[in-house]
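Supplementary Data S3. Sequence and structure tokens for construct A.
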Amino acid sequence: MLLIKPNSLELNACIEYYLTLCRTKGQSINTVQVKSSTLKQFECWSIANGVAFTDKINLDWLDNYQHYLYQYRKARDKEPLCRATIRYRLTAVKVFVRTLFIKGVLLKNTTEYFELPTTGRRLPKPILSEAEIEKIMSQTEYYGLRGIRDRAVMETYYASGIRRFELGQLTLQDIDFDLLQLRVNQGKGYKDR
């Protein structure tokens, strides 16, 4: 089966083509799902504001989208989006347009000179005290299979620095009880460690 470029510049067709390229490059299912969600949100906003074709995305359009993202309030708590989220969403659109240009779908990269917002630098959070750690660990029950499981999950998560997704994928076969080691199979970037 051949990878066929979209025969129109409609946002939906171009997004599907781009996501197929991402899957073809071996990007993880989670990565492609996040890109899909992010680009679909951009598509909905664009169509609602009168732009349904990819070749209409330009610097002014991204400025408008950035303004929308800064004004947006989350339904859950009415808080604004954090700067890192705004930067991620704008980066996703910028990379999407650049990829379409590289693949010959678009005649020019209209977002090449768009400047992404800065996210700033944060100071590291202080390390928890032993009492605070115990308070967190005591949230799980000490009895029953679920209590033992929950405590093991909490302690593994805290002690190893493993990613949430990687922890969810662990099986008993990934634990070497003799060497007291965990093996992470196909973690972030499909890396074993």
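Construct B, processed identically:
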Amino acid sequence: MTAVLLASVVSCGRPDQLPNAAPTPETVRQIAKEAYIYGFPMVDSYRIQHAYFVDKANPQYKGDWNQPHSIARVFTPEDTTIQTPNSDTPYTMLGADLRAEPLVLTVPPIEAGRYYSLQFIDSYTYNFAYVGSRTTGNGGGKYLLAGPSWKGDKPAGITDVIRSDTDFALVIYRTQLFDPNDIDNVKKIQGGYTVEPLSAFAKKSAATVPAVDFIAPLSPDEQKTSPKFFQILNFILKYAPEVSSEKDLRARFATIGIAPDGDFDPATMSKETLQAVQDGMADAWTEVNTFKKDKLDTGQVTSADLFGTREALKDNYLYRMAAAVLGIYGNTAQEAIYPVLAVDVTGAPLSGAGNYTVRFGPGQLSRRESRCVMGGGDQPG
């Protein structure tokens, strides 16, 4: 009788507390908000890299994976995929597929006084490494870029090994252009940026992996409201092995089907669950917009706080989302700082219909080694 009574008591808990119970709409809403803030930079980065390296019909297409693609000009307002590109450092883009084997990136010697950098960005949008004038100097070198599955040691002839936490990574090369007459010199430097698989460098047989069936990305507007956002996130997570600091977070996301093998499917959700997901996405935007208004626009938090390594950001996912919204792929503070002017001295938003003067008092200009550049652009929306 005691055993029967005990069993009855144990089974009388609230349904949402049972181990296999479906999460309540309130719980779904909260997890969807957390997962959206966590995943937005990843999904937006996927949209960009799909345009650059997958969709050959996209006007922003650069070329195939694992090949450097140089743009021997400065970016203009027509280059809309990234919100805030630099205007005096012609770009070279490398989309790195590291599933099969590492890549060897060769950087030529570059004359002293010319700034250049290679910014290494993983699928989380963390800046996990730099090569360039500030970090490694202008002497050139060969750098091995490896994915999470590669456990080898530094081969002979390699300057350094750089490891990515994700199977796909982006490397953004920036090469300083002094003036319009300098463009041929920049082109020559860009021509010296080469990339080859480790097997080719070591003169061994190449490793192979199955081709990826990339799913279609959402547009920037669709990313804000479409629950398909989480299906894209699930796809990305297949190539982003779990790190120890995110074990509990990933487990929580999995309770609503957000995981590398997750079954998140808006088409099969109840009306209440789907609404909870959409409300969670809206809650995420409310939080990031409030953060922008209260912290970024007031200068309490700056771009210097938003970009960097996982360790530097300390898994602050709100900062990471804000960084992606305002200017994805921004440099780490030690490499560059990005003061943002969004309002005038009265607090009114800047408008293309107005004329503005920006004044720097004595001692207020940066004394950083390279350069100071000012540019304008549309507000992200």
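The two ends are 64 Å apart (CA to CA). The chain has two domains: 19-49+218-327, 62-201.
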